Amino acid sequence: MSTAAPHSTGQDRLWSVDEHLEDVLTAIRPLEPIELHLLDAQGCVLVEDVTVPVSLPPFDNSSMDGYAVRVADVAGASEEFPAALEVVGDVAAGQPGLLQVGPGQAARIMTGAPLPPGAEAVVPVEWTDGGLGEGPVDGMRARSLAPEGATGHVRVHRPAEARAHVRAQGSDVRAGDRALEAGTVLGPPQIALLAAIGRGTVRVRPRPRVVVLSTGSELVQPGEQLSDGQIYDSNSFALTAAARDAGAIAYRVGAVADDADTLRSTVDDQLVRADLMVTTGGVSVGAYDVVKEALAHAGDEDEPGSGVEFRKLAMQPGKPQGFGTLGPDHIPLLALPGNPVSSYVSFELFVRPAIRTLMGLTDVHRPTTRATLTADRPLTSPRGRRQFLRGSYADGTVRPVGGAGSHLVAALAHADALIVVPEDVESVEPGAEVEVVLLG
Predict the structure, then answer these.
(1) CB 163 within 8 A of CB 120
(2) Measured between alpha carbons, how far is residue 88 from residues 55, 60, 117, 157, 279 in Å?
(3) What span, in angstroms and rounded, lies between the C-alpha atoms of 210 and 92?
(4) Burial of 426 per CB tally in 10 Å (0-12, 13-18, 19+)
(5) How many other CB atoms sit within 10 Å of the CB of residue 216?
(6) Which of 97, 118, 128, 240 would you call most buried, defined as having the most Cβ atoms within 10 angstroms of its Cβ?
(7) Which of 173, 74, 57 has the alpha carbon at shortest distance from 122?
(8) C-alpha to C-alpha distance for 33 and 386, rounded to whole angstroms
């Protein structure tokens, strides 16, 4: 997995959002499939269709606690004229079918138990006297407390149609059906289905391991005391959470000070546990932009074909970006700007699709829609830049949340969408239709 070495023109021209995204996704390949146990496969993507080996349910079984009966024996039954049947025993879930229900007979049956031969329907216990010789009952007494309930007679107060309260064999899925198709993300319901059809392991692409690293001597761990000129490190927390939300196994590295040697050493140490690395901060044009200093020529001599290229993109926020590969395994690295909103928007546009590509998914982007802009004044945007504004979307409309500043974390916390203003548009009037990227 590699990308071309840095081009000398990378910093000399303005790249479009689409060009940069295409470069990123072209250089990334899905991870190799592995066989995992079911719980380890949660969140992973199937690489092959799964066929049902045995029908679900595998036999006709009762959907109620009650009595397995023959339809003719309870025809016309009522509370005034109940049908009296001989109880021949119990049928419990997991119990082999030893009983047979003949004319004038019933078997006390539990939910999930196989329908015994001869029986055609199940009457709920609430339709009977429970074998007590009185009126309708609410339930059965525990067998350990009243073993005699499995014998004697029961009065049934209502008729039942054929197959009433019976789950038919194969009514869920049949042997030979396709249970799940390749490309399915395995969540709890899918894992339940795999377990139900007897699959203990499954072949999937593993969840990508993403290492998130923030840079800046001014950054302090949340919970610690701030000194003059310091701020709390929010980017690494936001991006680690975003990577997990995208489906990755994400590792957060504490903020690295503005020192190129320290950053290079930290990155080298983290490559061993990364399928993708993400840095935030230090990619602009300042004297202390350490990511640029440390990584712009990384790998030029020792690992030909690797290295990180830094670019300016025609977007706002998020103009400065970096992308390349590092190490002998050419681990992809995306270098994002340090302003919180710039960092998060860049993640949504570039890192999330990269993670989803590593997972082997075909649809790697957030869903988009068209919405009517509701705002107090027109939205303005610099010509030649694709602007992404925070927004709140509901019922086909979207309204801006906060201003355009790339430092407005509070506004970002209340947004569930990005309003997209194209490069050739400088003003958007209230009531106009806009493109919206849905984040929720």
Answers:
(1) yes
(2) 29, 19, 12, 19, 72
(3) 49
(4) middle
(5) 21
(6) 128
(7) 74
(8) 37
Quickly count: other Cβ atoms within 10 Å of residue 235's Cβ: 29
Among 171, 205, 267, 166, CA closest to 43: 205
Q: Which two tokens stand for residue 321?
A: 């970006």
Query: CA 233 to CA 347: how far, in whole Å?
Result: 16
Measured from the Cβ of residue 133, the count of other Cβ atoms closer than 10 Å reads 11
Q: Which two tokens stand for residue 298?
A: 């990384």
- pLDDT tens for residues 216-262? 888 888 888 888 888 888 999 999 999 999 999 999 998 888 888 89
CA 390 distance to own-chain centroid: 23
In this structure, which amino acid lies at residue 261?
A: D
**Structure tokens given for 274:** 């990364």
Nearest to 95 by CA among 155, 143, 165, 137: 143
Structure tokens that stand for 68 in this block = 């397995």
**Cβ proximity of 388 and 17 under 8 Å:** no
Dist. CA 162–CA 168, nearest whole Å: 12
First-to-last C-alpha distance (Å) of the chain? 31
Distance between CA atoms of 373 and 319, rounded to whole angstroms? 25
> Token match 């879930």: residue?
93
**What pLDDT digit, counting tens, does each position of 115-159 carry?**
999 999 999 999 999 998 888 888 888 877 777 777 899 999 999
